[in-house]
Amino acid sequence: MIEIYLLDVISSALAFIGILLLFLEWKRSGYRIFKVLLIIYFLCTLVYTGLLFGEWSNILPLNEKMEDITGTFLPLIWLMIFYMLLERIKINKLKESEANWKITFFSIGNGIITIDADSCVSRMNPAAERLTGWSIDDARGKKIDELLHLSNPLLKNILLEEIVSSDNYVRFPEHTILISKNGATCPISGSASPILDSGMDQFRGKNGGMVISFRDISESYRIQEKLFKEEQQMKLVLEGAELGTWDLDLKNKRIIFNKRWADMLGYKENELNSLENAWEKLTHPDDLPMVISVWNDHIIGKTNRFHVEHRMRSRNGRWKWTLTSGKVIQWDENGNPGRAAGIHRDISLRKEAEEKLNFQARLLDVIEKAIIVTDSLGRITYWNPYAGTIYGWKTGEVEGKKILEVIKANLPKEEEDEIFQKISKGESYIREFETPNKDDTLITVLCTITPIHDVLKRMIGVVAVLTDITYRKQIQNELKLKNDEYVRINKELKRSLEKIKNINIQLEKAKERAEESDRLKTAFLANLSHEVRTPMNGIMGFAELLKNDDINPAAQKKYIDVIQQSGNRMLKLIEDLVDISKIEAGAVDVKPAKVNLGKLLENLSAFFKPQAIEKGLTLSYSNETAGETLITDQVKLEQILTNLIKNALKYTRKGKIHFGCDIKDEQFRFWVKDTGIGIDPENQRTIFERFRKANTEYLGSEEGSGLGLSISKAFIEKMGGKIWVESKPGKGSTFWFTIPVHEIRTP
Amino acid sequence: MNNESEIVMLVLCIPVIFFVYYFRRDIKNLAAYKQLLLSFLFFFLACIFTNIEQFFWFSIFNFMEHLFYVGSSLFMIIWAHKYFVSERGNVKYD
């Protein structure tokens, strides 16, 4: 029993603490009636434990019935506790709802005005105050038509009449303009609805009042206007860009094309839209699987867009390349595509251009010329396969590198500057050069560098076209070498030909000379026979005469003289023949010795003086070199002078003969001058030739072999001098010859 | 013999139980509702025990009865404290 007592004490203590707690809480929070109920509950507990009035109480031990009574109250108090708590929850919810309603009512952007059954304003929110220009305090109790001023009075009357007389929902007509109290206007949209009852399930009717809701749609107007403009712009853009549009309703399997889409394929808009599965039917059968695959990829989320190029059949049966692009724009609640839309573009021209470009690209790939393109900084942006063939680098290895790092032309700085100048002027540059390839093997290329310009004429790079001419250069070099060889041979042939010509000329001359010589020899022989026969006849004749015994001594002497002269003449002829034969044989020797010119000339003058006198001629000589000593072959010099003086005596019939010597130009110059018959100019050129006498007929019976002048000439040339003649027919002749001064000594 | 008042208490508890069951969703919105329900449950069990003790094992059920009264009072104090604290600071308790 002690434990029970203890437990009741604890219960009583706890009830006491509860009561204390509630008193402490009395001012801290509200809901005091509930606190009172709890205090009663704790008091009942206190009583029920019996500590205060019950079995354990010493205070009022007789009131055990009190314990039983309070015990029956406890469930009731529990019921009250729960009931009050639930009521409290409802009240709180209502408060919260009211607060929310107030927040909504005062915060909502729409103007809300409530009117009662008499159409008098009962409430209005701040938005309505702002839009109408009325405050709730001013507006409350006023008729609604005093607040709502519309731009169209007729409209206002109709609307307000409808609002105040209708039990149903009334919608403001479009383009309703509200004029506020201060005169400002704004477009509004709105409605008026009957106020519902508290159960929110039936109308109160017009007796319950109406709630008018309206809002400023200026922004909507602006947005609508903007949307309208954008729509118009979009239409223009679509028309300008020649884009067709399609709108696919996947649920209803219906697709709508715009006019442009239909135009592209030559159809009318309604024709195409009414054609079932138009897309599949018009798509090229070869392209259809690919199109479906791309579409499936898009709708399962593999791709963000449906983007495919394919062919479609136009009305005239021709296939047109089209670009179809779009995406799913609506999905249903199960995640399936509901609607898709996009554009459709005719890309036939682009495809043709691509084909051309591809063709050109293939040409660049197969052309046997290296084509290298750089950007404006000289970095390689294109390198065709043949460039790789001749240089050894592949495209990936050189792209982005500077072209001069790859193609090392090793040009002089001046030439590089010239290249840059030409290119910067927009001109092309063509040059051959040697350049190493990847293996450092030198190759010869013919390079054409041309600048590339954009539409604004700005240089955006260069294109270099290189032709490998290594083999051609080798062939050219070989040809050049061969050509040089041919030129050399040709020159040699020309020279040989010249030589042959010269030889021919010489042969011709030699032949002429030989013929002339032959002719001269014939004449010479004829002359020689005459020259031999004449003295021989004299000798023979006069020797026959000398056989007579009756010849007197004077005649005998005369005959002997004639024989002697004829003998001398023959001897002279023989000497000349000996000399000429020596000359012909090249056996003439010059034997230099000191020659006293003065003495020589004096002797000659003395020797020929008698003959001159005999012919009635005057013979004289001059010696301007008196005292000079000449070193030469004296015999030959004397023979020359003798020959010339003899000739002068022979061909001069009257007048004089003068001979002499002087020094001119460091040479001894001899002359023999006569006033004889002279020599015509034609004979002057030939009289020094062998076997020739000037004007044979002219010379007539004058004796002589015709060898004297040629022998003299040969001797003079052997001694280093030369001989010439100055003559006029009938006036006389002067024979000159020179002997070089080898040594001049003054005695 | 059973005390009539104890039977009445037990009988009066039955409508409370129905009430609690009926408004169980609303009661769950109360602050510290678990302590409140525990307090009532202990009170109800105490009522049961005080009636059972009349038939057998008096001492044990009598002890249990008083023990559960203690428990009921204890949970009631705890709930009351938490409830009014939540009323003050709008604190939500489980």
Provide structural commentary.
The complex is a heterodimer of chains A (747) and B (94). Chain A is α+β, with helices and mostly antiparallel strands. Chain A folds into six domains: 2-89, no CATH class; 109-223, 2-Layer Sandwich (Beta-Lactamase), CATH 3.30.450.20; 258-352, PAS domain (Beta-Lactamase), CATH 3.30.450; 367-468, Beta-Lactamase (2-Layer Sandwich), CATH 3.30.450.20; 486-585, Orthogonal Bundle (Helix Hairpins); 588-740, Heat Shock Protein 90, CATH 3.30.565. The radius of gyration of chain A is 77 Å and the shape is rod-shaped. The N and C termini of chain A lie far apart (201 Å). Chain B has 94 residues and is an all-alpha fold. Chain B has a domain at 33-88. In chain B, helix 1 packs antiparallel against helix 3. Chain B is globular. At the A-B interface, helix 1, helix 2 and helix 3 of A face helix 1, helix 3 and helix 4 of B.
What general form of chain A does the structure show? rod-shaped
Low-confidence stretches of chain A: 199-206, 743-747
- Which structural class fits the helix and strand makeup of chain B? mainly alpha
- Please state the average pLDDT score of chain B: 84
Biggest chain-to-chain interface with counts: A-B, 39 and 36 residues
Key terms:
heterodimer; A: 747 residues; alpha+beta; Beta-Lactamase; seven-stranded antiparallel β-sheet; five-stranded antiparallel β-sheet; 24 helices; 24 strands; B: mainly alpha; 0% strand
What does the secondary structure layout of this molecule look like, with pairings?
The complex is a heterodimer of chains A (747) and B (94).
Chain A: H1 2-25, H2 32-48, H3 64-107, E1 111-115, E2 121-124, H4 126-132, H5 136-139, H6 144-147, E3 149-150, H7 153-165, E4 170-171, E5 176-179, E6 185-194, E7 210-216, H8 218-240, E8 243-249, E9 254-257, H9 259-264, H10 269-273, H11 278-282, H12 288-299, E10 306-313, E11 319-331, E12 337-346, H13 348-366, E13 370-375, E14 380-383, H14 385-391, H15 395-398, H16 403-406, H17 413-424, E15 429-436, E16 442-453, E17 459-468, H18 470-546, H19 553-585, E18 593-596, H20 597-615, E19 618-623, E20 629-632, H21 634-651, E21 656-664, E22 667-674, H22 681-684, H23 696-699, H24 708-718, E23 723-728, E24 732-740
Parallel strand pairs in A: 19-21
Antiparallel strand pairs in A: 1-2, 1-7, 3-5, 4-6, 5-6, 6-7, 8-9, 8-12, 10-11, 11-12, 13-14, 13-17, 15-16, 16-17, 18-20, 21-22, 22-24, 23-24
Helix pairs in contact in A: 1-2, 2-3, 18-19, 19-24, 20-21, 21-24
Chain B: H1 4-22, H2 24-27, H3 33-52, H4 58-89
